[in-house]
Design brief:
Elements: H1 3-27, H2 33-40, H3 44-50, H4 54-75, H5 83-95, H6 99-107, H7 124-136, H8 145-166, H9 170-185
Helix pairs in contact: 1-2, 1-4, 1-6, 4-5, 4-6, 5-7, 5-8, 5-9, 7-8, 8-9
Length: 190
């Protein structure tokens, strides 16, 4: 086997472990390394060859989760269209992150994020999107950005929970989330 094949194989195994850890820890933050190894279809020895301890694995998981969140945010194109249409795209992109966001919610609450000066409202791009919606008449101006952000997170969580407990399809759950968010942020007639 060539050196390139070996390093490609190692990269795939490492990624399989990180992906499994995201899925397993997203459902159960207290899951054991054995549970993660089993989900990745590797032995505990193999897992420890890549990650010396739980903290090492959690650092890799956090880095991967952050990268996925960043990609989803970029794909939502928050600066395009009306404020409400951007909120809708953001919900769609974030919905597919499922375990990643569940893991981030349980492992590192926003108030513990060292990049935030305040627990809420630390993303200026999100705030700009909501303020654009206030100006273009697609988001109720009585709703501050922090509230809209909390609304999105709560509806995403409710959707994932509903899908898991009710067995409802991804398509239907996403439709319910979007309908709820659209109705909640819409400008109300006087």
């Amino acid at each position: 086997m060539s050196e390139a094949q070996v390093s490609g194989s190692r990269a795939r195994t490492r990624q399989a472990i990180v992906d499994a850890a995201i899925d397993v820890l997203g459902r159960n933050p207290a899951a054991s390394l054995g549970d993660i190894a089993a989900a990745a279809e590797v032995g505990r020895t193999t897992l420890h060859r890549y990650f010396a301890d739980r903290a090492d694995l959690l650092r890799a998981v956090t880095a991967e989760a952050d990268a996925r969140l960043e990609r989803a945010t970029a794909q939502a194109r928050m600066t395009e269209g009306s404020g409400a249409s951007a909120v809708r795209r953001l919900c769609e992109e974030y919905f597919d992150l499922g375990s990643v966001l569940s893991l981030l919610f349980t492992a590192t609450p926003a108030s513990a994020d060292p990049s935030c000066e305040e627990p809420a409202g630390c993303d200026p791009d999100f705030t700009a999107m909501v303020e654009r919606g206030h100006r273009d008449g697609t988001i109720d101006p009585e709703l501050p950005a922090d509230w809209v952000q909390s609304l999105i997170w709560s509806q995403l969580y409710a959707g994932w929970s509903y899908q898991a407990t009710m067995g409802t399809s991804r398509h239907e759950v996403l439709r319910l989330i979007l309908r709820t968010v659209d109705g909640a942020i819409a400008v109300k007639a006087a």
